[in-house]
Amino acid sequence: MKVLVLGNSHVACLRIANQNRYQGKTHYEFIARGQGRGGLKGVDIRDGKLFHARPKQFNGWYADELSTFDAFVFTGSATPQQPDQAYSSALLRTWKTDLLTRHDALRLSSELVRQLNKPCIILPRPFPKAGQAEAMSYSTHKADTQWANDWIGEGITYARLPEETVVDRKAQTDPKYLLEDGSHGNELFGATCLNEVDKILKDP
């Protein structure tokens, strides 16, 4: 199986893990564009290839047909949180439509499923270290992930952070899975995520 991983600086831990730790049989390729340069903003899919209005800023070196890949993985995004259930159904529909256009990984995943009918997986970024953490527990993260998968439709899977990487009952990733900056995963984290991707693709 051949899989393309796209995203921002969070792609790095997956790429390094693929080189040094990953023992699976999937062939992974990687494209990363730092969030400071816009991440996946401005990236589109045209004629079966990735497109950017300023290709030298993103993927002028990348020319493979996307149809050669069996699946796609996006990383570096936050998992959408469930909206307040007190909102009206009309507002919730508008909120979901806006999410499909503003959340780049979700927008591109939707296009890949529509154009190529290939599965897409969206990996969440690690919980930041203490002091920067979002007010979220792992149980809330699991609930948000389940909610996202319930409404998003076939072909796209939001993956949960592997439970073994998270400090129990805290919105914080275990430091042994993080780089010194406390917000990016390290090689061990990347290998764990690649194994999770393999499990999802084997048993979607």
Q: What is the overall silhouette?
A: globular
Beta strands, count: 7
Label the structural class. Answer: alpha/beta
Alpha carbon gyration radius: 17 Å
User: What is the CATH fold-level name?
Assistant: Rossmann fold
Q: How large is the count of helical segments? A: 5
Secondary-structure element pattern, one letter each: EHEEEEHHEHEH
Low-pLDDT stretches: none
- Identify the CATH architecture: 3-Layer(aba) Sandwich
Biggest sheet layout: 5 strands, parallel
Total domain count = 1
Share of residues in strands = 15-25%
Widest β-sheet, arrangement of strands: 2-1-5-6-7
- Our measurement of the CA-to-CA distance between the termini, rounded to an integer number of angstroms, reads 14 Å
Portion of residues within helices: 25-40%
Task: State the name of the first-level CATH class.
Answer: Alpha Beta
The overall pLDDT average reads: 83
Overview of this protein structure:
33% of the residues lie in helices and 17% in strands. The protein is an alpha/beta fold and 204 residues long. It has one domain: 3-Layer(aba) Sandwich (Rossmann fold). The strands form 2 sheets. The protein has a 5-stranded parallel beta sheet with strand order 2-1-5-6-7, sandwiched between helices. It has a two-stranded antiparallel sheet with strand order 3-4. A hairpin with a 2-residue loop joins strand 3 and strand 4 (49-52). Helix 1 (11-20) crosses helix 5 (187-202). The longest helix has 16 residues, at 187-202.
